[in-house]
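One example copied in:
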Amino acid sequence: MHDLLTSLQGLPPLLIYVIAAIIVAGETAVIFGLLVPGEATLLLVGFLAYAGTLRLAPALLVMILAAVIGDTLAFRAGRRYGPRARAGRWGARVGHQRWGRAEAMLGRLGGRGVLTARWVAFARTLVPRLAGAAGMPYRRFAPWNLAGVVTWVGGSVLAGNLAGESYETVSRLLGRATGAVLVLVAALVAVVLAGRWLGRNPDPARALVSRAAGLRPVRWLSGRYGVLFFLLAMYVGPTWTLLINLVGGLLLLFVAGFAIAWVFEAVVRHSGLAAVDGAIAGWFADRRTPGAVDVTLAVVSALRGPFLIALVAVVAAVLAWRNRPWRADLLGVVGTVGAFVPLVVLAVVVELTGPGVGGPGGRDAGPFPTQNAVVAASLCTLAWLLSRGARWPVAVAAWTGAAAGVVGIVGARLYLGLSSASGSATAVLLGVAWTALFVVAWATRDRAVGEASAEPERSAVPAET
């Protein structure tokens, strides 16, 4: 690495500008730009500005201009070839409904999605094309894209400039962080898909058994011993069948919880976030005062997981009694009177994953701060219960309060030194994703129920003559 930097410092500055601009623009302008190291190039430009080979202001301007040109070319390519690809053989295989949902999603996210994509490898190559293909006006695309380019290019170049001789370390950490973000995005997509599957299959154990019944060995057993299975089902009865379904569904929730916890812990562990734990802990330690510590410790001790789980149970029972009856399936239980059950499952999962609790206020050890995970999930569940079916001011207030509560309690635990920054990030991600699983499931269930109830009404309307 040292030899490479020495060789680059001997090149003419104009040649370095041209090569770096081609790499940065090519990352989005051409589809094989997925393989181009954009962040490493910008960090290198920042380091060369630190070393005096380049000037910082012109380097920033050239890199921003190159990134904007690359994104504009990608946007134009999507606008020109997107409809042709949609009408082609592969576009027909995707289906008109999926194309419609993709356009609706891009319409909802709009410029925010364009800005965010700039910070995610692979996404910054594909999103400009998707925006062009979806028909997003360039006047809407351009300002959000410029904001993303300025922040991404400026942050990366300045990071390389401030790193100085530590360029190699910063480049390695940023590369690890990019990979971690990709895995995290994939994990969140998997959580959403799992939630949609749960919404369509509110009794997951029964759904999996039905799928298994279609396998050849099971069909053979059913054909040979079908009478015995029928007599066994008659003996068990509907009540025990319901209980067996609920227990089987809870076991599946435990498995899902362990899977999500393992993925999120691995993402944060390999992201390099733990490198800042010491600096953040020191910053909080320098600002502790005896009076503030006592007050903060009292608040953290009061707003612990068991108290919040009990609060969720009370609120869920009141809302279930007032608003809607619960259905006799797992999703019906955990979405109404049993909304506290997923929180108990989460608490058990994070305890078994490795952390222990001890010391004043519950000092967490291991990959997951237990209290942070349960607090995040509990507050999000409360916001979901209070906002479901409510008017938008109530929903906004509920979710704003949940976000403020999570930030406040996690910040308080960091202030007291009860949790690390990387562990807190892992725990909050786990709690939010765990709640999102059930929020998506209930939204899918409600949509399916609404469509089913609307279908008879449409069929009952007499056709016009």
Q: What stands out?
A: Residues 203 and 329 are 5 Å apart (CA to CA). The chain has a mean pLDDT of 75. The chain has 20 helices and two strands.
